[in-house]
Amino acid sequence: GSLERRRCLYLHTGRACCQMMEVLLAALILVCSSVSGGSAGGYTGLPALGGIYYYQYGGAYSGFSGADGERAQQLDQHFYLLKLPIARAAMAVGGCLLVFPFVLILVGVLRVPWHFPAWLVIECTLYIVIAVGTVPAQYYFFHSLLSIYNSSVCKEREQLYQSKGYQGFWCSLHGAEIAAGLLGCTAAMAYLLSAALAVRDYRTVHEQKQKQLQL
């Protein structure tokens, strides 16, 4: 009935649209973080996938044999374990950022801000805290990754693969990690915009309630 229509109207508001954009950004951050973690290694991981990967990378890395193959496997797994904690942390953050706007959309659909306007102040505060928190989070993310790429494990791994003519194992940030950083910056701006919209909506709700009291 009319109650359901009023609830659905929230999805057409600026705040809801911003929250849906935050869901998309968080999902992309989660995907990029999972790509950054990768598999257990190039030598042991890609051939197991078969198909296009098998042929693209030279028939299960046929250039490796004996001690070189074993060393490549050790370096791959060590490199994977070095990246695993930061990848899991980034995925956890992305997951939390994915759930947060979903909860706020549900709160908006249930018209909680109308019945409890102070919620919008809480929402604004949470958005500002998260937006500010993305700065040290991004610093930690990139500082940790650069430390891993500058490690002796990564350097030896890079040299070993290059000696066999394989490319793509450089000790530098790759596209998914850079994309995760850019998405994090975009998300921070979206959170600040949502904070401003929450303040605006708080004023609107407060004024409407004052008018109802006067009537």
UniProtKB/TrEMBL annotation:
Key words of the record: Membrane, Transmembrane, Transmembrane helix
Species whose genome carries this gene: Erpornis zantholeuca
Membrane topology term: Multi-pass membrane protein
GO cellular component: membrane
Boundaries of every MARVEL domain copy: 10-203
Protein name per its UniProtKB record: MALD3 protein
Keyword Cell cycle included in the entry's annotation: no
Primary site of residence: membrane
Residues that span the membrane, as ranges: 21-43, 86-107, 119-142, 178-199
Record gene name: Marveld3_0
